């Protein structure tokens, strides 16, 4: 998928201006990316519409390329949709705080219950009680009991013969008596939503008055996530979402769907089967995962931060006029140094990380400093007009900067290559031969 996004991006990268049609084309790719991440179709439509409205109105030529800018807008919108901040559990003023887990069978409710208990013990020394209210599968009760033993957390159960509502009622009483600070209610699921289940959950809600009703959803749920989330929300009013199994290679589009449909914050993420595989939800990380852009977004951010916009424009003008000189060369070196190790930077560009020869691209700060010293030993006229550099001038520069002539010659050669590359880039050719010799 990202291949396609990348193609669309590199197409736009070659352009100076972006038309509405370009934005449209880019948005088509973004839409596909979202659909491939299994985001619900209607959610995708609404979302891309919002982004398109924002993107079209925007001044496009700033420090970023137009394509980068669109991706940035998409990322911002996506993050905003997913929730701008992390939301923790709804805590009750008085103990116990009651948390009820709901969701389809196999979503990961019971596992999450164990993880949450562990998390609460680790972070706030909590004394939770777990209630086993899934009576339809004997194994479900055992599963919770095993977790309880591992964590040294009490599990209240009444076997499979008692009505779950009654189990919860008695469990709540026990928690009050024992002064547990948390009660985690593990409920039953079905393979599909059905009325009997919903009625039971409603009654449990009535009895337990939970502070948080967490809908647990398998990240691989895909298109159906919207219906599931909508039903649970309509019937029970969920107050939070847990997305499990994000350790798989799913891109987690369900998160976006569910958030859009219910408006309930995503609170936790399950990232494995172990009790410690629980993460607090971070909207920005989820966004780049859904987009499948890897570290592209980090790169965009970095480029925007570090690259002096005005300098870039000046440079662009020089490239067009073919007047790239040693002063620009120094600036270029400074900018590259300011952006951190170039090998890190290159690796963030999709497709670049497995480019052969990348491991040879190393920027040595000392080397850059030496080159700078050579340029500074030139007269202003020489810096502006590299053609003046005859052998005697080169010898003078070598002596003045504490280098030998061979090194000066090498630097001048690199300067020329750099200049050639800048010209190619300005013509829109991004395949840069000898990129590794640029510095
Ligand atoms: P429930 O029916 O909703 O209670 O689901 P369970 O908690 O029994 O989980 C169903 C299966 O999913 C079990 O095999 C769990 O080990 C597994 N599971 C739950 N959460 C995760 C997760 O975050 N990652 C992975 N890989 N597996 C999980
Ligand atoms: Mg279960």
Give structural attributes.
alpha/beta, Four Helix Bundle (Hemerythrin (Met), subunit A), 434 Repressor (Amino-terminal Domain), binds magnesium ion, Rossmann fold, 56% helix, binds guanosine-5'-diphosphate, disordered C terminus, 8 strands, 3 domains, 439 residues, eight-stranded mixed sheet, elongated
Write the layout of secondary structure elements.
Elements: H1 2-13, H2 20-36, H3 41-56, H4 66-82, E1 97-102, H5 109-124, E2 128-133, H6 138-151, E3 155-156, H7 164-178, E4 182-187, H8 195-208, E5 212-218, H9 225-236, E6 240-244, H10 253-262, E7 266-270, E8 278-280, H11 283-291, H12 296-306, H13 309-321, H14 326-338, H15 342-348, H16 365-376, H17 380-384, H18 391-401, H19 405-426
Parallel strand pairs: 1-4, 1-5, 2-3, 2-4, 5-6, 6-7
Antiparallel strand pairs: 7-8
The structure holds guanosine-5'-diphosphate and magnesium ion (MG).
The site of magnesium ion (MG) has 5 residues, from α5.
Describe the protein.
This protein is α/β, with parallel strands linked by helices. It folds into three domains: 2-85, Four Helix Bundle (Hemerythrin (Met), subunit A) (Up-down Bundle); 97-281, 3-Layer(aba) Sandwich (Rossmann fold); 307-437, Orthogonal Bundle (434 Repressor (Amino-terminal Domain)). It has helices at 2-13, 20-36, 41-56, 66-82, 109-124, 138-151, 164-178, 195-208, 225-236, 253-262, 283-291, 296-306, 309-321, 326-338, 342-348, 365-376, 380-384, 391-401, 405-426; strands spanning 97-102, 128-133, 155-156, 182-187, 212-218, 240-244, 266-270, 278-280. Strand 6 (240-244), helix 10 (253-262) and strand 7 (266-270) form a beta-alpha-beta unit. Helix 1 (2-13) packs antiparallel against helix 2, helix 3 (41-56) packs across helix 4 (66-82) and helix 5 packs parallel to helix 6 (138-151). The structure holds guanosine-5'-diphosphate and magnesium ion.
């Amino acid at each position: 998928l990202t291949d396609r996004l990348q193609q669309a991006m590199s197409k736009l990268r070659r352009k100076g201006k972006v038309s509405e049609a370009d934005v449209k084309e880019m948005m088509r790719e973004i839409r596909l990316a979202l659909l491939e991440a299994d985001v619900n179709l209607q959610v995708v439509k609404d979302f891309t519409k919002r982004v398109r409205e924002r993107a079209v109105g925007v001044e496009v030529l700033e420090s970023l390329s137009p394509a980068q800018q669109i991706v940035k807008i998409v990322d911002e919108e996506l993050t905003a949709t997913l929730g701008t901040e992390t939301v923790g559990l709804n805590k009750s003023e008085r103990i116990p705080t009651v948390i009820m887990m709901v969701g389809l069978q196999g979503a990961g409710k019971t596992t999450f219950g164990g993880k949450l208990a562990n998390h609460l013990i680790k972070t706030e020394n909590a004394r939770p009680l777990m209630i086993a209210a899934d009576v339809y599968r004997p194994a479900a009760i055992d599963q919770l009991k095993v977790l309880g033993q591992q964590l040294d957390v009490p599990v209240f159960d009444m076997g499979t013969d008692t009505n779950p509502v009654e189990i919860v009622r008695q469990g709540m009483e026990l928690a009050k008596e024992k002064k547990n600070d948390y009660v985690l209610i593990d409920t039953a699921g079905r393979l599909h939503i059905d009325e009997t289940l919903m009625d039971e959950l409603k009654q449990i809600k009535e009895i337990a008055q939970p502070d948080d009703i967490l809908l647990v959803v398998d990240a691989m749920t895909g298109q159906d996530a919207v219906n599931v989330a909508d039903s649970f929300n309509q019937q029970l009013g969920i107050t939070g979402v847990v997305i499990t199994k994000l350790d798989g290679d799913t891109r987690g589009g369900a998160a976006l769907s569910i958030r859009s449909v219910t408006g309930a914050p995503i609170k936790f993420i399950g990232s494995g089967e172990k009790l410690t595989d629980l993460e607090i939800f971070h909207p920005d990380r989820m966004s780049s995962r859904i987009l499948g852009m890897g570290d592209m977004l980090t790169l965009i951010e970095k480029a925007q931060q570090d690259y002096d916009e005005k300098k870039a424009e000046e440079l662009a003008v020089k490239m067009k006029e073919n007047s790239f000189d040693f002063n620009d060369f120094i600036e270029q070196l400074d900018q590259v140094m300011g952006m951190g190790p170039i090998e890190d930077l290159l690796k963030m560009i999709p497709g670049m990380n497995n480019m052969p020869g990348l491991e040879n691209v190393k920027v040595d700060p000392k080397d850059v400093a030496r080159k700078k010293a050579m340029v500074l030993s030139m007269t202003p006229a020489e810096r502006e007009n590299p053609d003046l550099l005859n052998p005697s001038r080169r010898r003078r520069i070598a002596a003045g900067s504490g280098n030998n002539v061979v090194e000066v010659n090498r630097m001048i050669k690199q300067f020329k290559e750099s200049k050639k590359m800048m010209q190619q880039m300005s013509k829109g050719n991004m395949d840069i031969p000898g990129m590794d010799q640029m510095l």
